[in-house]
Amino acid sequence: MISVLSGCTHLGVAAIAVLSSVPALAADKTLTIYTYESFISEWGPGPKVKEAFEKTCECQVDFVGVADGVALLTRLKLEGDASKADLVLGLDTNLVAEAKQTGFFDVHGVDTSAVKVPGGFSDDTFIPYDYGHFAVVYDTQALKTPPKSMKELVEGDPSQKIVIEDPRTSTPGLGLLLWVKSIYGDEAPAAWQKLKGRILTVTPGWSEAYGLFTKGEVPMVLSYTTSPAYHMVAEETERYQAAAFSEGHYIQIEVAGLLKNAPEKDLARKFLKFMLSPGFQNTIPTNNWMMPAAPTSEPLPEAFGKLVSPSKTFLMSPEEVAANRKAWIDEWLAAMTLK
Amino acid sequence: MLGRRQRLTGFLGGAFSLVAIGIFVGVAILALLHYGGEGGLTVLFSDPLLLSVLRFTLLQAALSTALSVILAIPVARSLARQTRFLGRMWVIRLMAVPMGLPVLIGALGLIGIWGRQGLINDGLLLLGKAEPVSIYGLGGILLAHVFFNLPLAARLMLAGLERLPSEYWLMSATLGMKSGAIFRFIEWPALRSLIPGIAGLVFMLCATSFTLVLILGGGPAATTLEVAIYQALRFDFDPERAVSLAFLQIAVTALILVAMALFPAPAEHGKTLGRPPRRFDGLGLKARLSDGTALVAAVLFLTLPLGAVVVAGLRADLLKLLTEEAFLRAAATSLAIALGSALSALLLALATIHAQTVISLLRRPSLTMKGISLLLSGVSSLVLLVPTIVLATGWFMALRSMGDIASFAPAVVVGINALMALPFVMRVLAPALATHRAATGRLVFSLGIAGFSKLRLIDWPLLKKPLLTALSFAMALSLGDLGAVALFGSEKITTLPWLIYNRMGQYRTNDADGLALILGLICLLLTLAGTTGAQSRKDDVENAGPV
């Protein structure tokens, strides 16, 4: 017992040493990028991007990771003008209007002609770096006839359940809300009330939902058209597939922006340009499991050719989302709680 | 019987606790209020859904508490009565694991057993029952809350039963008391004084439950206040609304806690010869059968979902995970935070209890003193009601002008976790210290032992076990916590639960399962430290000399 305790103390001391150590500066300039945690994790694009950019810039890239895009924006609001960030990477178009309202962001002034995203999002402040369409991903072993449209999902067999994310606490949840709204318009509450019978449960975020799905608890989950690519490339299985919906799919476009108070503005602009080059874009497909927003130097892995390619893309303007989000979430709540 | 010095240290300790907790919670809330501006409550009450959210929060918490506490009684009693069956210690240790498990992992374990594809439904299918049992909805929430809180309640009750003087058992055996009579006259009075406190604790844990309620609730019809607070801060960034909601939550649950506090105070602790308890009432066949049934049921209920976690975890490449730098860093960070917060919680608890004792021993305590004592017991529990995200965000606001926030993050996380653990630590230590004082107080006074030698000769040997139990409780709690880190999280401070969520977010469910298994094992190891004291208790008593 004593040895366990003293072991803990040693570890504790070691950890405190780790926590308080300040990274030595390798170069005179440091570019600080705020992003989401999974971007900079071992398998994310972060480490490769850092290496590639540092070769060209004689600088050091410092990533600061928070939970996700929403947390990123909150973090900026919390820090206000005191923020040390040069760049923010990982907001999506639904958050753009709100991000601009903070007044922290500056016009990027970068040539974005290389950007090719469905729905044609372009903006003077935020540059897209990847995208993915929301999709119902299903388990082929549990579901032989997946829904071929949103209508079939809404009106289909209620015993074939789906897990969705909560639009109040996650971006995929909000994505589904906007998707249904795009298709059904004013009829959305009725559609939700019908769909309700098919929903096994609503999780706070994507991780919980996808966990239930891969554990076999439910045959369908709201995820991305690119999710099957992970299973095909990393796990060599075609078991999980995305259902193509005839009405079309709602898109999530991830963007990066430059801060007004950025200590290294020129460096940050350089990075934004770099973002649209193959050095950055090559890491996106098999590290972030999203579609690249600009040309890569190599063709995409074979698996990406097998993915659902939506016939139509839905994308609401950031202003429209910002203006209606609260009302639509309330509408969703009312429809979902109604007996 | 109180020396001047004791009185002084008591007051100082109490003041220290009050000020420390007050500053920690106060700074966070003031910072948020400052940022949020004024307006406040009108925004809150214009929300039509608020009432139903509040109703559901309280309903599920009340039901979860009732079930957890009632079901814990037979479990604790069986464990107390059957003192020497094989693996008893392991059952007790096992009970600390759910506490340390990240909620998501625990939920997945439960779903592995009770879910649509789970063991129970498979069994029912074999028996020809087509309609699966659904754990989504209120039933699932209750099941999960009992899974997480019954072990906690049972452990606290067991500690209470084990504190009963061994003379009671000798006496009851001499008198030939039957099990029913023993329960009525010995065990129930001891439990009755503990239950309001335990129930209050469990109630607060269930009232602030968030991920579990969302995952297993089935939909937004099952929403708690905590979700509304989370949304207000994270999605809308509306600190004003978040703080108003937090105050509403505090107000409502405080009312319920006050009601619980009106229950009769714990009985006086008798003097004891300090012999290790030896019970004679568990020897009969009938007692052994009923205890065995209760224990097997409880163990199955706990181990099956944990087993699902283990089975899933074993599919991962554990060796590779264990040697990864990311894991080692996260484990070291988690343990450092857990140890730091557990020690802080212990310190706060000891100061608080000492102050309360000193005040209760005053011959004519003034109204102020009584007030301070009440405040102390309130404050050490009320902190559970202030959601961690509110505390974390508030501290973030307060610290942001001080430069690099990331460097303050570990301290704030330690503080938040210490506060979270404080009520548990108090529940373990307060009765133990009271018993200890009743047993040794007069002797110590007459011998004139004080200071370090009292600590070394009298206090440490006898209090070692409850102190270690409290420490392991607090560490397990802190190890499983995700809340505080989630906001501050950066590459500089990654804990194990954070790493688990991170891996899941990267499609690496396999790794996440493996890490969850490792985290569970660490919790188990920690409780080893907290429970081995029990085995050497006999030696401790002998070492303590002629007590």
TrEMBL record, chain A:
The keyword Ubl conjugation does not apply. The keyword Transcription regulation does not apply. Keywords: Periplasm, Signal, Transport. Its main location: periplasm. Residues 1-26 form the signal peptide. It is found in: Periplasm. Belongs to the bacterial solute-binding protein 1 family. This is Thiamine-binding periplasmic protein. The lineage of its organism: Bacteria, Pseudomonadati, Pseudomonadota, Alphaproteobacteria, Hyphomicrobiales.
Automatic annotation (TrEMBL), chain B:
It comes from the Bacteria. InterPro entries: MetI-like (IPR000515), MetI-like_sf (IPR035906), ThiP_ABC_transpt (IPR005947). It holds the Pfam family BPD_transp_1. The chain crosses the membrane at residues 12-33, 53-73, 94-115, 135-156, 198-221, 242-263, 294-314, 326-351, 371-398, 405-426, 438-455, 467-489, 514-534. Residues 54-261, 331-530 form the ABC transmembrane type-1 domain. Keywords: Cell inner membrane, Cell membrane, Membrane, Repeat, Transmembrane, Transmembrane helix, Transport. PROSITE patterns: ABC_TM1 (PS50928). It is found in: Cell inner membrane; Cell membrane. It is a multi-pass membrane protein. The complex is composed of two ATP-binding proteins (ThiQ), two transmembrane proteins (ThiP) and a solute-binding protein (ThiB). Belongs to the binding-protein-dependent transport system permease family. This is Thiamine transport system permease protein ThiP.
